[in-house]
Design the sequence.
């Protein structure tokens, strides 16, 4: 029998009672653990009596809020899988994703209902709709008012092993977003990892920049502060508002992308602000620089911890490292092009490196296992590893495999293990560039030119056809830099020429602003940059 994490909420509510469970920073509105549990029960009763059944797929398009948390727990209690999609992925991707997962129920705010009506062809499988918010009856009764209080406790659905709890989409940074199937037992395993490895406890206060993490916080008895920000645009966070809620609610830990923390750290340093109550920071979604970690260490208390978990939507968390180890031991090697050290496997997780392959691998053989220090493809096994993509057999076959009877996920990342068991990330498999003589790995090559003070970030791409592609390094200037591109370029070329990894790269281009993913505002869309570079250099190559 699998475990439903909604049961954790009911137990926590008994212990935490009137303590605040969810606080909306924008309005200062809060809801206690008792009310969170009760309201999710009320929603579950209402939805059940309206015809929602276990197994019904529910498209949930509600902004990060107490209602979002209540509704998600209500759907867990019902046993109705919740479908969560980043609205910022663009209309075309959004419509394709919705059509692919075939929801039968739609719950959305009034604005989402407008989208529903405009693009009804993407929702052909939906038979029942609910509106979360006032619409003067245009989209039906307001779910928040219609779900009347009930005295009876809702009987939480008891899932069988493999029962679906949610479908969550990948960022689509190396291809179309894919719907990842999350079973109830996988959510329970993630909850256990977060609690035990990162030491999250009852009484902690979380401020997650990624809304779904508020579910884990409240299920563990920690309060969740919903920050006043657009969760789809973390790099555009208002740092004053984000910091204000960190301080006002004595937040003890917070999860966000490097793009968000770069803005927050910069603001704190400019204004002499420190955050002594913030004891844990989790930073993930893209490689994290040593400079950013050093800045964060400056604004946090000396005993604060900065954890950098590594994984993917399909398997998280699997590996982690703490900032002190990065700053003291690994960052210097990263700057030399050795890749980004992402740490050691969490308990119960097995990471292996296999020979890089662009085809389906039904089963990994011993001959395919790489030796320590050899760059290959990262594969992972463990209880937080998802089993399949939804309605996508081809991608599932490509991403899943076995080794000696154990199930593994192919992350699509390249890297290697060092002699102390630490994993080093060298870039996405799809982003490596074959020159006809050798492979160049994005993270390793980019690190060389990123050492320049006037370079914000860089991207390795390949252009041209044939057996080998021509490597190009695309550069983005630091916004604060006042120097000319030509002046910077000459110095960048000298840096590149001094490294064996980049000495044979002839072409460098400046781009005003890299296209990046919506969720973390940090994963670079190198495929788009490759097309752009091809057009710029077509007459030169």
Sequence:
């Amino acid at each position: 029998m699998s475990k439903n994490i909604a049961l954790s909420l009911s137990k926590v509510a008994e212990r935490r009672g009137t303590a605040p469970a969810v606080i909306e920073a924008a309005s200062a509105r809060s809801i206690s653990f008792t009310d969170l549990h009760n309201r999710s029960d009320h929603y579950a009763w209402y939805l059940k009596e309206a015809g929602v059944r276990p197994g019904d797929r529910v498209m949930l398009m509600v902004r990060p809020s107490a209602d979002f948390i209540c509704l998600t727990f209500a759907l867990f209690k019902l046993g109705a899988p919740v479908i969560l999609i980043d609205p910022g992925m663009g209309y075309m991707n959004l419509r394709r994703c919705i059509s692919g997962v075939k929801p039968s129920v739609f719950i959305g705010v009034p604005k989402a209902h407008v989208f529903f009506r405009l693009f009804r062809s993407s929702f052909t499988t939906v038979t029942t709709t609910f509106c979360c918010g006032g619409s003067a009856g245009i989209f039906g009764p307001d779910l928040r008012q219609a779900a009347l209080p009930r005295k009876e406790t809702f009987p939480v659905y008891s899932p069988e092993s493999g029962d679906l709890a949610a479908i969550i989409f990948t960022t689509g940074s190396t291809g179309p977003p894919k719907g990842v199937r999350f079973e109830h037992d996988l959510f329970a395993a993630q909850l256990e990892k977060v609690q035990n490895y990162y030491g999250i406890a009852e009484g902690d206060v979380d401020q997650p920049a990624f809304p779904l993490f508020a579910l884990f916080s409240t299920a563990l008895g920690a309060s969740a502060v919903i920050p006043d920000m657009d969760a789809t645009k973390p790099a555009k966070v208002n740092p004053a508002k984000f910091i204000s809620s960190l301080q006002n609610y004595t937040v003890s830990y917070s999860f966000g992308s490097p793009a968000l923390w770069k803005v927050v750290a910069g603001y704190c340093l400019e204004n002499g602000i420190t955050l002594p109550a913030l004891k844990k920071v989790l930073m993930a979604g893209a490689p994290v620089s040593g400079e950013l970690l050093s800045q964060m260490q400056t604004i946090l208390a000396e005993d604060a911890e900065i954890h950098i978990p590594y994984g993917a939507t399909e398997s998280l968390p699997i590996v982690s490292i703490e900032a002190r180890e990065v700053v003291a031991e690994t960052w210097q090697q990263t700057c030399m092009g050795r890749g980004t050290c992402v740490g050691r496997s969490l308990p119960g997780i097995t990471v292996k490196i296999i020979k890089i392959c662009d085809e389906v691998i039904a089963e990994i053989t011993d001959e395919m296992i790489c030796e320590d220090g050899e760059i290959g493809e990262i594969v992972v096994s463990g209880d937080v590893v998802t089993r399949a993509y939804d309605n996508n057999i081809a991608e599932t076959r490509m991403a899943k495999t076995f080794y000696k009877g154990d199930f593994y996920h192919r992350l699509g990342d390249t890297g290697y293990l060092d002699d102390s068991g630490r994993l080093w990330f060298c870039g996405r498999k799809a982003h490596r560039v074959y020159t006809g003589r050798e492979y160049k790995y994005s993270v390793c090559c980019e690190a060389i030119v990123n050492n320049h003070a006037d370079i914000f970030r860089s991207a390795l791409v390949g252009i041209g056809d044939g057996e080998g592609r021509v490597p190009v390094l695309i550069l983005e200037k630091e916004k604060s830099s006042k120097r000319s591109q030509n002046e910077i370029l000459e110095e960048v070329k000298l840096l590149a020429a001094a490294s064996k990894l980049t000495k044979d790269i002839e072409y460098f281009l400046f781009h005003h602003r890299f296209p990046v993913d919506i969720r973390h505002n940090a994963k670079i869309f190198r495929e788009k940059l490759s097309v752009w570079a091809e057009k710029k250099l077509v007459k030169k190559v």
About this structure: Residues 6-183 form a domain with the Rossmann fold fold (CATH 3.40.50.980).
